[in-house]
Amino acid sequence: MNKKESNMKKVGLLGGTFDPPHYGHLMIAEEVYQALDLNEVWFIPSYEPPHKEKSTTCAEHRISMIQEAIIDNNHFLLNTIEVERLGKSYTIDTVKKLQESYPDIQFYFIIGADMVEYLSKWFKIDELIKIIQFVGVKRNKYQLDTIYPIIEVEIPGMDVSSTMVRERLREGKTIRYLVPPQVLEKIEEHNLYGSK
Question: Which of 56, 80, 157, 175 is 20 to 30 A (C-alpha) from 65?
Answer without folding.
Answer: 157
